[in-house]
Amino acid sequence: MTAKSERRFSYALLVLPAVLIYLAVVAFPTIFSILLSLTNYNGGKIFGNPNIKFVGFNSYIWMFTEPTGNFYSSLKNNMYIVAVSVFGQIPLGFILAYILSRKLIKRGTTFFQTMIFLPNVISPIIIGVLFKAFFVSPHSVYMELVRLIDPEAVFTIGARPMIPVLIVILWMFTGFYMIIFLANMQRIDPAIIEAARIDGANESTILFNIMLPAMTGVIITCSILAISGSLRTFDLIYAMTMGGPAGQTRVLSLFMYQSAFQGAANYPLANAISTVMVLISIVLIIVTRQMGKIFGGKEE
Amino acid sequence: MDNRSVSLMTKTIVYAVMILFAVLSIYPIFWLVIQSFKSNQVYLTTNKLSLPAEWFLGNYSFVWIRGGFSNFFVNSVIYSVVTVSVVVLLSNMAGFAFAKIKYRITPLLHGLFIVGILLTIQSILIPLFLMMNAVNLLNTRLGILIPYIALGLPMGVYLCTDFIRGIHDELVEAARIDGAGFLRIFARIIFPMCAPVSVTLAIITFTATWNEFILMNLMTAGDKYKSIPAAVGRFAGSLGSDYGKLFTSLTISLLPILIFYLIFRNQITKGVAAGAVKG
Fold it and tell me: Which residues in chain B (176-215) have CB-CB distances under 8 A to chain A?
């Protein structure tokens, strides 16, 4: 074998297994999903079925205009999740990371870091089942506490069923943002802070004039992660509320799942929803790249 | 580093904040484990926050044996071990080729994997289900393992390519001059050198696989091939739940991943930070 053909052969052998599996299971279905969303396929044989026809953007038009507005109410819940991240998890994570990175506490840094990140390694489905029992059931800890005040209280799901879900999401992911901020704060050259200190800067000057500006890029990355994370939210709500009552806690991924697998299968609609989700993801990738260029260098 | 100006007041507040967050993070887990030692009857009739008067072990034997959790546990282990091994090997192979064998197609292929990091599994769920159905892989181990491996690859290829790019080219060139083929260089030199990134990747992949629910729930019917996450809800019914068994099944699901986390916590947090920064 010549060196050139050995080179080509090796490259193919090393790359092909990963590329083939990836193309078959991730890339192809992405395109397949877009095609399906443009058809009238509703079950039965999928390859070589003469009844499947392309019907253009009917599913999209229906999704955007149908009278119950399920798409918009689901999207709204996704936006609530993003809001909890941007106004809750990210600031809290920043504060916690700041405390740990500036060594404002002497002991237990590793302990606090380990404990606060812990919810992130647990399966969201387990967290969902756990908090359903903890919060949203007649036999919950929440009702136990309510009965301390009003012994006759009866469990109701409440007027705003998204609130318990959002509390759990806040609980789950604050540690995630803490870890990201912490990793990036530890990359700031300590000499800069030391120099500022010698020039008489106090803690709040260090926070607002050094740390926050250095973290701008990271905060933007975190916000993008929050949006993509909200699109991923499924297991937790599936276990906790199943989108109920009356779809009030439904998110896009659950809306898609229910369109395809609960009741009469509406695959084109479900694929239209997932295509919109993919589009949001692609926009995010582009935005991330652009942000990376603008704030380039700071996080790499 | 900062012992001068931090007043006692600030210190107290800072400690209070940290302790509050730590307690809030672990209390629900702690509560769950304790409640798993109550029978359903006891849980329903006593204070939900109390310790059990006597520690009841019956839930554990029931859930493990009659509840089928020994089987789900074995399935979880099989899926995790196979997925982790294959993802680590394939990612290192592709990473080596992308980083050290120059071809014009590399940026395109590598870019495809990078795009996959932000794609959500939900967006390919339906076509994947229909495809698996068309090739008769629904409700088989292979039908679970192939998607699991594919979903682990984007992050794996990204991490491995990045790591192997950091290895000096001279090392590969010297071996080439000595007459070694690329496959040999990979097996003898590069793959062993990639142990650190392989460990990080293995940990990330293990956590994701062990916890995966949506695919497992959709691709399997019946108990034979299910893993733990697809089984935890079974003691919670719409008409009434057996809370003792429910909490026990959750505890059994939690323990392995918690032990794993406490052992590898540094690598896990490092891996998360490394994976998240590139977004």
Answer: 181-183, 186, 207, 210-214
Full domain range(s) for residue A45? 38-294
Residues 6+ apart with CB under 8 A from B218: A261, B125, B129
Task: Please give the CATH number for the structural domain made up of B68-230.
Answer: 1.10.3720.10
Q: Is the dihedral of CA A32, A38, A41, A42 positive or negative?
A: positive
- Residue B267, chain A, CB below 8 Å: the answer is no
| Closest residue in chain A to residue B32, using alpha carbons only | A130
Residue of B nearest to A230 (CA): B120
Which residues in chain A are contacts of B90 at CB distance < 8 A? 17-18, 21
Number of domains making up chain A: 1
Report the distance separating Cα B68 and Cα B89, nearest Å.
32
Alpha-carbon span B245 to B234, nearest angstrom: 9
Query: Judged by CB atoms within 8 Å, which residues 112-171 of B form the interface with A?
Result: 112-113, 115-116, 118-131, 133-134, 146-147, 149-151, 153-154, 157
Using CA atoms, how far residue A16 sits from A30, A68, B99, B115, in Å, is 20, 47, 15, 18
Beta carbons of A189 and B243 less than 8 angstroms apart? no
Q: Does residue A256 lie within any of the structural domains?
A: yes
Residues of A in contact with B132 (CB under 8 A): none
Angle, vertex CA A109, rays to CA A104 and CA A113, nearest 5: 120
C-alpha distance from A102 to closest chain B C-alpha (Å): 8
A207: in domain: yes
Q: Taking the CA of residue A18 as centre, how many other CA atoms within 13 Å lie in the half-sphere pointing to its CB?
A: 32
Sign of CA dihedral A233, A238, A240, A243: positive
Q: Is residue A24 part of a domain?
A: no
Can you tell me the ipTM of this complex?
0.85
Helical H runs in A38-108?
A: 58-65, 70-84, 90-101
Measure CB to CB from residue A46 to each of B130, B150, B250 and give the nearest one.
B130
Separation CA B253–CA B265 (nearest Å): 18
Residue B183 is nearest to which of A13, A96, A125, comparing CB atoms? A13
Whether B43 and chain A come into contact, CB under 8 Å, resolves to yes
CATH number at residue A224: 1.10.3720.10
For residue B82 the two structure tokens come to 């196979």
pTM across the whole model: 0.86
pLDDT tens for chain B, 279 residues long, are: 444 456 788 888 888 889 998 998 889 998 888 888 888 777 777 777 777 777 888 788 887 888 888 899 999 999 999 999 999 999 999 999 999 998 889 999 999 898 888 777 887 888 898 888 888 888 889 999 999 999 999 999 999 999 999 999 889 889 988 888 899 999 999 999 999 899 989 988 998 899 999 899 888 888 888 998 888 877 776 666 788 888 888 998 889 999 999 998 888 887 777 766 543
Q: By the CB < 8 Å criterion, does B27 face chain A?
A: no
Classify residue A151: in a domain, yes or no.
yes
